[in-house]
Write a structure and sequence with these properties.
75% of the residues lie in helices and 0% in strands. The protein is mostly helical. InterPro entries: ARM-like, ARM-type_fold.
């Protein structure tokens, strides 16, 4: 397995023999060197082949990953890292596989691993991305197990500790977006945290990040806006969020980041009257018009600009 893992250009051969490789090795996965090599080899196969394996095979791999993560959680971090990297890929194969991984308690296990190894940057980055995939479209009946609250608390620690690391911020807030969007337990707890202050601070220092990281930060903010109380949104307005979003929309952002920023502005304006008035009078209207007049822009950005424009014009006869 180690020899196969070290070869280059053999991805097709691996992908054609994934089930055989797994069958030969699966009874020896309590040996960490076998686990690490097998999971690295299978990951190569997935990257080449995608998710065209049989559903039964995908579920067997998912069960194996769950067992190994439990076995190595307090024993061997490199084995856990290889396990989590493959788990992220396997979780993408289908909702059924993701459900199997969720039922096995992998959200809690991953959160605990992040908490226990928070100073291991590479490991935490992989674990955050795995967590974001596991939490994606999480079924409501699994939301009462406390995993969302635990994961949110751990991710807040990661955000504070690595707030200047571009890749880590992106990984952390990708997971945060999944939790806030799909996990009721995380949504219920968020009002008692300092997440908004962390997001605001990151947005003010956005020029230190690449554009995709900025997009992820704003996506997490959008999710936070949609579920926050009126009192929270008033506080956000008082802290200058409308001004900050307006400022960002005048900058040279990529289409996907511009789209996400317009969405955040629209949702904020929809929930908060003062924000709608300020955004309408501070140049966001002109930004939307400029996007609509352009002929070579992304279609999703065009749709978001028209949606934002509609909201700004609503009950604003002077602007209309």
């Amino acid at each position: 397995l180690a020899a196969i893992d070290s070869l280059t250009g053999c991805e097709k051969a691996i992908s054609d023999n994934m089930e055989g490789l797994f069958h030969l090795s699966s009874s020896n996965l309590t040996q960490s060197s076998i686990s690490i090599s097998l999971y690295n080899v299978l990951l190569k196969g997935y990257h080449f082949r995608g998710h065209s394996n049989s559903p039964e095979f995908e579920l067997r791999v998912a069960d194996s990953l769950s067992q190994c993560l439990r076995f190595y959680k307090s024993r061997n971090i490199p084995a856990c890292q290889a396990c989590l990297r493959l788990m992220q890929e396997v979780a993408l194969s289908s909702p059924y596989v993701r459900l199997r991984l969720l039922r096995a308690g992998n959200v809690n296990a991953t959160s605990e691993l992040i908490s226990d190894n928070i100073s291991n940057l590479e490991f935490v980055k992989i674990a955050c991305l795995t967590l974001s995939t596991l939490a994606y479209e999480i079924p409501e009946f699994l939301c009462g197990d406390g995993s969302g609250q635990l994961a949110l608390g751990v991710l807040l620690r990661v955000a504070l500790m690595y707030r200047t690391d571009d890749e880590m911020v992106a990984a952390c807030f990708t997971a945060m977006w999944s939790l806030l969007t799909f996990h009721r337990g995380a949504r219920n707890k968020v009002s008692s945290t300092n997440l908004f202050d962390i997001l605001l601070d990151l947005m003010k220092n956005r020029h230190t990040f690449v554009d995709e990281t900025i997009r992820v930060i704003v996506a997490a903010l959008s999710a936070l806006i949609t579920l926050s109380s009126d009192a929270f949104l008033t506080r956000a307005f008082d802290k200058g969020l409308a001004f900050l979003l307006t400022e960002m929309l005048t900058e040279d952002l990529t289409p996907s980041t511009m789209e996400e920023t317009l969405r955040a502005a629209r949702w904020f304006a929809n929930r908060q009257d003062q924000a709608r008035q300020q955004l309408a009078s501070s140049g966001v209207f002109e930004t939307c018009m400029r996007i609509i007049w352009a002929t070579n822009l992304d279609e999703n950005l065009l749709i978001e600009a028209m949606n934002t424009l509609s909201l700004l014009l609503y009950k604003n006869t002077e602007l209309a």
